[in-house]
Structure formats: C-alpha cells, structure tokens
Amino acid sequence: MSADFWAGYLSGAIGIIIGNPLDLIKVRLQASYTTDAVITFPHQHLSRFESASSLVRGAAAPILGYGALNAILFVAYNRSLVLLDSSVTDPTNPQGVSLYKLWLAGAAGGVASWTVSSPTEFIKCRTQLDMRPEVSSWTVTKDIVKTLGWRGLYFGGAITCARDSIGYGFYFWTYEYCKRLMASKDDDAQQTAMKVLLCGGIAGVATWASVYPLDMIKTRLQAQGLGTHPEDQPLMRPQNERRVLNSFQLAKETYRTEGLKAFYRGLGVCSVRAFIVNAVQWASYEWLMRYFNNPWNQGYAQVS
C-alpha cells in the first residue's frame, strides 16, 4: 500500500493512544444533562473512574478503527487535492495551492473516512458511557448488531458525516495556513519540528472549535438509552421499546432546557486533547512520510 496510507494509519493509532483518557472525559461531559424528554446521564458519573483501566475504556475500537480512518482520510485528501489542482506534485507540501482547495480536499477526506468513523464513534461512545466494568468495545459491538442489525452500527451516521466533512476541511486548511505563516528559510531541523508540532496542535483545536456543537449532539444522539442506572438496563434496546430523538429534536430540546452553553460543554478539555493529539499526530505523519519515501528505505525493503 502507499506511503500515505501507512503513515496515516500509524499516526492515527498513536494519536488515539495518547488522547483517549481526555476523550473519555469529553464524552461524559457532553452526555451529562437533565431533561424530561430523554433518559439522562448524571453529572456525578463524570468523576467516576472505577479503576485505572477506565481511563482507556472504549479505546479498543478507536485504536483499530481510527488508524484505518486516518489512513483513509490522508489518502482521500491527497488524491482529492491532486484532482482539484493538477499542479500539485507533493500533497504533503502544497505550496501555492489555494486555501479553499485545501478545505475542499479535507472535506472530501472527511466524507471518505466516515465509513470507518461512524461505527467507531458509536461503539466508543456507548462503551465510554456505560459504567459496568465488564462492558467492552467488543461487548457493545455484538449487542448493537444483535439488537439493531449491521446497519445499526451507522446510527447517527448523518451528523457524524457532517461533522467529519466540515471539521476535516478546517483541519487541513488551518494546518497549511499556519505552516505558511510560520515558514522561514533559516529554520534548522529543531525549529522545523517545533513548528510542525505547533501547527498540528492549532489545527486540531480549530477543527474541534468549528464542529463542537455537532459533536455534542452526535454524542447525545448515540448515548440515548443509557440511563442513570445502566446496570438495570440492556446495552441497547429495540427501536420499538425506546423513544429516540433525532438530531434536530435533540438540538431543540438541549437549547430549550440548557441554553447555548450546553453545546460547548467540555470544549476546554477537548481543546487540550486536540492540541496534544494533533501535534503528535502531524509530527508522526510527516516523519513517517519522509521515512517511507526515502529511496534508501525503499531499496532496502526490496532487497530484503
């Protein structure tokens, strides 16, 4: 497979390993609310971490899925950018390319990666919010398929797709814009590496800031059915046994009962996580791309 596939896959897996504990806190903050319209997830669960293992709860699905998601994302972005601008010879260094084309290529990458992100996000969300220690990503996956069928893995898929396309558009746009602002011919290797980390971190924060309300609604949409006493409930309920609100109904109900601030609950934690994860992820991606595209490494692999 191509260098950008493996560079994207490995950097994505690294990012998830680093960021999962903060992602767990973010998801629980988003899901905590009080309303009579849907089953609630109580605030006291935010600080309830049964053991050290709870900090990596729900990580299995993202580690496996997000590596593939990131690989698809970067491959689709690179190919889309070449299609949008035939002058591009190196998508990892698109000098002179219009920023709106970078946004469109990023949005295309987000739509392509949705095929993996939608089921991965659903499984991760349900696993992170369920308090029972015996519940794992695999347990949740089996129960979703058993209750809702294979199509159930894509529950909340429309809002996930919208989030990914918009968010990843700003992701690549911001990263390249920051690189152009900070570019200098006099930088040494250490300064270049620091700028990659900084640009990657800023891109991550900008991405989440642009789509955070959508992500909050997605989390609440996928969390429906997990109540205050999950030990007394099945992981999933059949459609005819539960009241399921759609994205628009959840948005209206949230605004009516909690106001605008609810749409940004957890943004601070998410921004810290986004900066750290994406700084490391972009640095890993660029290093891996240079490694895989090194002629010496390719020649050595062929001889081996």
From TrEMBL:
GO molecular function: transmembrane transporter activity
Residue intervals passing through the bilayer: 6-25, 55-77, 97-116, 152-173, 193-214
Topology of this chain in the membrane: Multi-pass membrane protein
Start and stop residues of the Solcar repeats: 1-83, 97-181, 191-291
Any one annotated GO CC term: mitochondrial inner membrane
Subcellular location(s) per record: Mitochondrion inner membrane
Pfam family, one: Mito_carr
The organism's place on the tree of life at top rank: Eukaryota
Keywords noted in UniProt: Membrane, Mitochondrion, Mitochondrion inner membrane, Repeat, Transmembrane, Transmembrane helix, Transport
Family classification: Belongs to the mitochondrial carrier (TC 2.A.29) family.
Stated name of the protein: Mitochondrial carrier domain-containing protein
